[in-house]
Amino acid sequence: MNTTTSYAPRSRFFSIPALETVAAWLLAIIWIFPLLYAFWAAFHPSEFMVNFALFAPLTLENFTNAWSQAPFTRYYLNTFALVTGVVIGQFVICTLAAFAFARFPIPGKNVLFMLVLIQLFVFPEVLIVENYRIASELGLINTITGIGLPYVASALGIFLLRQTFKTIPRELEDAARIEGCNWLEILWKVYVPLAKPTYLAYGLASISHHWNNFIWPLVVTNSVESRPLTVGLGVFSAPETGVNWATVSAATLLSIAPLLIAFLLFQRQFVQSFLRAGIR
Amino acid sequence: MSFTNHRKMQLYGALLLLPAAVLLTTFAYLPTVTTVINSLFLPGFRGAPTEFVGLENYQVLFDDPTFWKVARNNLIYAVGTIPTSIALALGMALFVNGKLRGRGFVRMAYFTPTILPMIAAANIWMFFYAPQIGLFNKLLGMLGFSGVNWLGDPNLALSSVIVMSVWKEAGFFMIFYLAALQSMPPELKEAADLEGTSRWSFFWRVTFPLLMPTTLFVLINALINSVRVVDHLFILTKGGPNNATNLLLYYVYENAFSFFDRTTAATITVVILLVLAVVATLKFTILDRRTHYQ
């Protein structure tokens, strides 16, 4: 901090970063505030949401209310099943396709690859009407498979894995072949282990995307049995249901808690994964 | 010998590709084709296309003032969210790229909204915007102003939605700027310091131009998001009041699942697909030629 005016040039030099620090912190506080507020609201009796008093008595009542008013256990299980299923499906399907694009001579390969890349822009949710029709013809309405299947052949996954596979030296593949490995064994023993960082990055980005996805799961599900957390939360907190704000805050925290905790624990990996998955 | 081997490889590769091809056809190519077809036909029983009418559905859509309102909303939404969130993202990245007390916390604070589901974010913001008890009106009241109906006033609702979207997206874009800043050679800064270049002119003459590829990349993503993300509308406004916050994809959803008008939904979807095609062309031609990542 500058206290005197006699060091004018120096103080100017130092005061800019100080001002910047203040600005950075101010912005950070504004950015984290909504979440902190939701935290605060969830742990205090609902009347204090309106008459904000920082040291109002703490309570867990909002959580018990939320928990009893909606089948959150079911929603959790559904979301876990959905996210696990989608990620496993994506890993398998995208690995196979990426391997083909990286190492096999396929007629019209470049055109096919461009066709795959179209899906980077044409997401299942944009084609929501026709995808709904197809899902219903396949008998997938109101099933977790129905929520996840349209995302399994992910262009992003194929693209990222193909890029990674292409950087793996052929010598390793040849060595494995000399040892008598067939193609699938080569894929499993050489390519997959070497692409671990890509799987981790893509997997984390995919988990967070599907944990948070809303519109397609909303359309394709119509009962508690298959609804994931986001849809459950959306139904729960719709203004017309008349649930009070403190309970909504508690329910919101319940829905985001696992992902948020995972993020706080593995922040670096999450940030890296968004970066890796984003740059395409 | 080698010829049959080559054929074998081709077959094997095709088999590896098959599962992805089947799924992509089912949930991407086929629905795209049927959407286009549906937009050229009149609807019949259970929405099945009956009579070929060419571009008539488009004529009807373009004569509908609601469509133009929604399209205009989407344009305003894009113009309102994209430059603001990109500018904020760049500012955030510059902040946390430098030496800063509590940098880890600041970075986390900026990025956390990215991790939240849009629906959860909207739940939280819904309370801020609530007319009687909402935080924003409380603050206005403390300053002696009368409160406004943030989401209920047609003149304010879209701006309110935009503010929340900017909050949600800026931290995501920050990550890309931060990565780009960290890959910039430190020699540039050292050389500039030796020459006594001010921070301001260093930013505008060196940093900003070098970040151009990142800006273009972020811009493409932001453009896609502006036609794709509609989750918050379900909580905040349901497209209202009087369509003031209705966006293209939400309008598709409404037409298909509330009004059961699949033809109109298909026609609007084609419009969205055309927008996405323009964005994709932009990316694959301009962007890939001019930028080099890594």
TrEMBL record, chain B:
Cellular-component GO terms for this entry: plasma membrane
Protein name, per record: Sugar ABC transporter permease
Entry keyword set: Cell membrane, Membrane, Transmembrane, Transmembrane helix, Transport
Keyword presence, Transcription: no
Spans through the membrane: 75-96, 108-130, 156-181, 202-224, 265-286
Cellular localization per UniProt: Cell membrane
PROSITE patterns associated with the record: ABC_TM1
Protein family per UniProt: Belongs to the binding-protein-dependent transport system permease family.
Membrane topology: Multi-pass membrane protein
Lineage start: Bacteria, Pseudomonadati, Pseudomonadota, Gammaproteobacteria, Oceanospirillales
Any matching Pfam family: BPD_transp_1
A GO BP annotation: transmembrane transport
Chief place of localization: membrane
Domain annotation ABC transmembrane type-1: ranges: 71-283
PANTHER family: BLL4140 PROTEIN
